Amino acid sequence: MSRFGYTVLGFGGFTPAGGPGVWTDAAQTINTNRYQCVTAGSSASAIIAGGSSTGNSEVWNGNSWSNAADNLATSPVNSAQGGGTASSAIVIGGNRGGSASQVCEIWNSGSGTWASGPDNTNSVFTVGASAADSSTSAWVCGGYTGSAVGDKTNSLSGTTWSNKEDLPTGRLAMAANNTGSASDAAAMTGSTGSLSAKNERWTDDTWATDGADITTALTDSPAGFGQTSGGDVIVSHGENASGPSGDCFEFTNGSWTTGNTCLANIRNNYGGGPTGAGITCGGYNETAGAFVDDTYTFARAIST
Length: 304
What we know:
The chain has a five-stranded mixed beta sheet, with no helix packed on it. It contains no helices and 34 strands. It is globular, with a radius of gyration of 17 Å. A hairpin with a 2-residue loop joins strand 18 (153-157) and strand 19. Residues 1-16 have low confidence and may be disordered. It is an all-beta fold and 304 residues long. The chain has one domain (22-299): 6 Propeller (Neuraminidase). The two termini are 15 Å apart.
């Protein structure tokens, strides 16, 4: 049972509610090594799209990866934003064929195809923060505009993108790629040109600047996931001041907890899923100097 934010385990033992979560090597590899691929879904069912030198898509059934029947319209597509579910996902912007883009594509598992979505003509976003409930409800901010660190915030409702209040601290390479819901999300850590520990929360079309800074500043798009709110999210991997990391940090109840270290020191390995059923795959192993194909899942007893 839960009481006062704690969960009773066995004969009176206590652990902070919701954590720490446990990482598992899924022992299943994606078919195309990549990093910075948009991830949508959860550890039970997911789709990934694009990344590094590819526009390919792959689907995860909870046990193994298979190539999707359809791929993104252009290749490669890296540094994009997005998220959603395994059945209704969105890829927002990113570098397409070497140029920053406003193009969006949406996935429908019923048809098994990607289709042109509503292009975000308001702003250009690459390596930004994002969250999506589905292919018709999404949020994106910050990142790189193609010429500078960005601070714009846009939201999608149906087929219409709208400009919103600017991100208070413009950053790129923040936790990616599904850090909350389309109406309650977080822009966490990243780089302003130097490492930033900022944690700024987006709720009801407004930025709050009083969130607790992350314990250790990270950049290079650490995996970020949590599908309910910016107040219940996980950040892992990325690169700290010393180099690529396998560290994991859990944000809940207004504070950060250092979680269990993951199984590899990698960066640029976007994450997806709720805090109780997260997934991350691919990334870049700096020691080996190579894109990777590993899959890791994250489970936490309590997830909102």
